[in-house]
């Protein structure tokens, strides 16, 4: 982990944002198993090992966010990191919301909360994510985010399908949302 991945103390301890029956805040290591489950049950995300979600909650909590139900159980998450070669760019790795909680604006609230929290640590000029062709829900989510923040979305193929070792993996299209001003 490079220093760019360590959030300052005031960001690590930021108070959660409340909305309806759920809150948005930082992930905890104990959330890792639930994040893995949410990713698996999404049926659209590439599911990483359960160990990687535990590490993500520990090492990248400053650049990730979790939505919690009233009982404290994670019902959505966004994972991300600041790009080491472009520290003003937040790369959003994964976004997932439990099926029973979709349609409540949780994914958008997660993205807004996370980018605002990260912007308090230093300049945040852009958000990037990759989206497989045909993933209309993610397309809508990130297009709406760009509109809310008065930014443009530029799309380019980051990894063609031939770059992946397993056959059948679709290309990953980079969506760069910029310029951002917080």
Automatic annotation (TrEMBL):
One of its GO terms (molecular function) is diaminobutyrate acetyltransferase activity. Residues 17-167 form the N-acetyltransferase domain. Belongs to the acetyltransferase family. EctA subfamily. InterPro entries: Acyl_CoA_acyltransferase, Ectoine_EctA, GNAT_dom. Its EC number is 2.3.1.178. Signal peptide: none annotated. Keywords: Acyltransferase, Transferase. PROSITE patterns: GNAT. Pathway: Amine and polyamine biosynthesis; ectoine biosynthesis; L-ectoine from L-aspartate 4-semialdehyde: step 2/3. Pfam families: Acetyltransf_1. It comes from Streptomyces roseolus. This is L-2,4-diaminobutyric acid acetyltransferase. It is an enzyme of class 2 (transferase). SUPFAM superfamilies: Acyl-CoA N-acyltransferases (Nat).
């Amino acid at each position: 982990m490079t220093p760019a991945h360590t959030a300052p103390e005031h960001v690590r301890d930021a108070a959660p944002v409340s909305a309806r029956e759920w809150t948005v805040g930082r992930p905890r290591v104990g959330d890792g198993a639930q994040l893995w489950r949410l990713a698996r049950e999404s049926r659209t995300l590439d599911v990483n090992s359960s160990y990687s979600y535990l590490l993500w909650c520990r090492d990248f909590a400053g650049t990730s966010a979790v939505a919690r139900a009233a009982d404290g159980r994670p019902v959505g998450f966004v994972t991300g990191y600041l790009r080491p070669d472009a520290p003003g760019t937040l790369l959003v790795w994964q976004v997932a919301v439990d099926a029973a909680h979709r349609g409540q604006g949780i994914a958008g609230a997660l993205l807004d909360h996370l980018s605002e929290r990260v912007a308090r640590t230093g300049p945040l000029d852009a958000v990037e994510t990759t989206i497989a062709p045909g993933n209309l829900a993610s397309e809508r989510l990130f297009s709406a985010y760009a509109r809310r923040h008065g930014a443009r979305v530029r799309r380019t193929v980051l990894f063609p399908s031939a770059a992946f070792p397993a056959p059948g993996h679709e290309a990953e299209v980079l969506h760069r949302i910029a310029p951002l001003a917080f």
